[in-house]
Amino acid sequence: MDTITPFANNNDPEEPAMSIRFHQTESEIRLIYHPEMQDWLGERIGIAPDYDYDTSNTQQPANNPWPISLWGGVFEFSQSDLIDAEFEEQYIFLLGATKNEAPYYFVEGRKLRIPFDVYLSTDMRISTKHFGAGPARWKASVFGHIAKVLDPDEKNVIIGGPHEDAMPEEAFNELVNNLPTSYEFKRYADYRTAQLVGEYFDTSRDFEQDYSRYMTRKTARAGRAHSRGNPTNELIAAQQLELMQYGLSQLDYLLENTNPSAVPEREWRDSIYPILKIIFPQYVFAKADIQIPDRIDPSHSHRFIDFLLADARGNIDVLEIKKAFPKSSLIRKRTYRDNYIAAKELTGGVMQIEKYINNLLNWGIDGEKELYSRYKDELPENLDKLRFLNPRGLLIIGYCKGNDERSGFTEREAYDFDLIRRHYSRIVDIITYNDLRDRFQRIISSLEQDLGA
Prior knowledge:
Shape: elongated
Number of helices: 11
Distance between the termini: 52 Å
Strand content: 15-25%
Largest sheet: 7 strands, mixed
Oligomer: single chain
Radius of gyration: 35 Å
Helix content: 25-40%
């Protein structure tokens, strides 16, 4: 017989619902069972009303009802485990006890129907969730699942407490909190039933969608709870939040100028540089005013790239930073055949980036080696080369406040501007300062939610 999980009640297929609870002392854990309907257990072990059951009597009835399975087969007790019995009231079993003053309750594996013994920290607040999950009549045994995945050579499982080989209590609680609940079992049963019955009959609603939504919400809640409950995650989130708030404040300082486009382009670039790696965390290296040879235009011997960026594998991209121009510098005021088209400042910025990329590709392997030699002392230690592998461009330009016709895009203008951006996306990502503000604000909102702020 498979004694792992889930466990059915092999002693009595018609066993009614039952109620169990635990009583902890410094030296013992006792399981207390309260019959909720007919006292099948009392009848099974030969207890009648007003009968004083002698737990010290080890002589068993002729029909030998022991061992007894409880709670859907998660627990199994022998006669010697029964401490006290009161017909139709309660039955008390010894689940675990301390040994040799160790800070653990020792629970014999046979009581959990598993092939190893369990040690539970005496500091734990023991509850039913630590042993089983699911409907009352079909329990998924927590330790049964653990037994199923453990190496057969393992002799003990230690939960919580100071032992060096123990599974931390927090990790154990994470396990039990993610096992299916009775509600989840019901949702899944409805879904599977509807899936099969729906082949032949119309169903009242989409049970598959109900189950999918429930599991999505559960996963999201578990992720947030894990983030909030883990000190390391909370520290990282707090640091990220501080960085994002700093980046947003730097950006707002520039944008709150009465006329952002009047701020010199150099000041925009110098102000954005300190927050570049916050805006684009995929890049591990950013360098301003990079001189490269111009092998395309004979009237120029070299050009200067605003920013050269390198990702963690050394792949090079280029970044051009423009002022926060108004929308008139992004799209033309007059339409062409009822279409808004790109303004000269926008097309000029894209053309600059295209030339930078073409010059890098023409420079080739010699250029890769030259740039690496030039900046190797500023690169991360384990980054041993730079590569012009299909370089991409990024263009930061434009700031349109609101959605009125004077300062912000109308719905039609926004649609055409997005078409323009997608047209150029093969070569360059066009990013407005509005996009940057939105990115900061959404990340800040998400981090605050994770931290419960």
